[in-house]
Amino acid sequence: MCGICGILYFGRERNVEEALLRKMCASIIHRGPDDEGILIDKNIGIGIRRLSIIDLTAGHQPIHNEDETVWIICNGEIYNYKEIRKELKEAGHRFYTNSDTEVIVHLYEEFGENCVQRLNGMFAFSIWDKRKKRLFAARDRLGVKPFYYSIDKEKFIFGSEIKAILEDKEINREVDPQALNDYLTFRYVPCPLTMFKGIRKLPPGHLIIIDEGKFVLKEYWDLKFSVDRRKTEADFASELLERLEESVKKRLMSDVPLGVFLSGGLDSSAITGLMSRLVSEPVKTFSVAFDGHEDCNELDYARQISDLYHTDHHELVIDHNDFTAFLPGFIWHMDEPVADPASIPLYYISKLAKNYVTVLLSGEGGDEVLAGYSYWKVVLYQKLQSIYEKFPGFFKKTVNAINEKTMRINFFKRSNLPAEKRDLYSATGVFDEEEKKIFCTERLLGVAGIEPSWNILRECFNKVKDESYLNKILYLDTKTWLPEELLMKADKMTMATSVELRVPFLDYTFVEFCATIPPSLKTKIGVNKYIFKKAVSSFVPKGIIKRKKMGFPVPISAWFRKELKEYTADILLSGQSTRRGYFRSEKIRQILEEHWSCAFDHSLKIWNLLVLELWFRTYMD
Q1: Domain of 495?
Q2: Using an 8 Å Cβ cutoff, are 197 and 484 in contact?
Q3: Which of 53, 70, 279, 357 has the fewest CB atoms inside 10 Å of its own CB, making it the most exposed?
Q4: What residues are annotated to the active site?
Q5: 360: in domain
Q6: Are residues 559 and 535 part of one domain?
Q7: How do residues 141-173 score in pLDDT, each as one tens digit?
Q8: Residue 601 falls inside a structural domain
Q9: In 3D, which of 275, 341, 335 has the Cα closest to residue 491?
């Protein structure tokens, strides 16, 4: 696991300055404290900070081919590299390291850009082909590893984190208004935008080729649903477990100690159980909870799994003081605002784990590929919607009149919304389009060309328009919420402590298999993750399987009313915040007072605004 960066000037007469490349590397040293390497070839420079996981002594990057005409820097792990290495050696390629990264160099020599089709892993890499004067970069299929870039007429600059790109003082720090608008709704900035105008994310499953100044962005993988009607329920359950165990086994590849982030939920419990089957020593497990908030405490469930599998268990309890103490660091490490409060406890548990391991496995992605949220409610809603649309007009008018009086967002009110807005409610939205019109000022609303945030959802739905409604929702979450929120925070918070996180549920072959499972087996009325629960029932306790999903809760709602009340008010109602002019200050005060009085729970809105303001102070002021 590493941090990578680089610059390519399109004018051959301009050479890359080593000092700048070193600064870019230094900005992401937390991603790779073990080693640094750079390559400068006149107008191209690539650099890396390395966290040594495989081939600790000889895996120094950049890595090259036999005649040093092809060079690579890579952030990530290739889990099938040994099989590929064997094939390439038989084809005549000579290796000088035992690292997985060197495999990509020779695979590129054989297959060019199609080399990515052979790779199974999490990765973001860049290859410089000296013979063809070509820069080639790619990001893994599901977006486990990040890749940011900026391009103009003069240069292409990239990095694992935005802060590396910002080391180039020619890059302007300007807010992208469309990104700000979308952040208010989604609590993250959807790909390909970032909060910085002119800086982009390389979408998951995409590659970049820059050849003689010509820029090509291409998709090489997409999630396709193809339901297999031949298999029985028992067949799917058996194969699911077999494939997940194989995925866990792949992710035990390491020359350094490994552990598991054990939340006490279903996914991490299953990963712990499977890993315990595959290793000879007790698995190291790590859990975190919040002091004085039993509704956010899953330690008892984590201990139950630890006792069952005799793990080497470690726990951490944090409070509101720990939470606020890391807020500045959280904002800095995330690069752009991502308003998930679970990021902070994830940082603390990663910091604890670093004392014992360098690699952690987690259950990220299980909910998105196996329908772990209350998707059955969405499916039920969709069925009710189709029934409602057949009702006579006079009935709908009566319902509209009732809704106008009650002003409640209920099924009937949602049914009256345009289709794209209804889809928006299936996502984890914070401010919808109507609320933004009330809450925001003309500084944002008056910007020409800003599109409604639900357009992003509509585009996703249109790509799978012929699929079942459940698979549409799963596709949407896999393309938006998963890479832009869950995986982004997972990468940034673990790498902040120099820990590598691996996600067995997101092995792309496992994801593709899950896409063949009939929707009726993924979720049933009242039961999410139905087939997965059946698959793991032989080794995960019933109490874990049947317990209510908590989803890594953080007690911000209570803290904003008591411990963090003054802290939040001081920031959001300050002159510094008000002068930005994006929001109506009286509306900010209103949601604070409504939250303090317990009239409404506005904790997600408050957290969204707080993270945004702290980001402005860190990166713009």
Answers
A1: 233-318+342-372+481-546
A2: no
A3: 279
A4: 2
A5: yes
A6: no
A7: 999 999 999 999 999 999 999 999 999 999 999
A8: yes
A9: 335
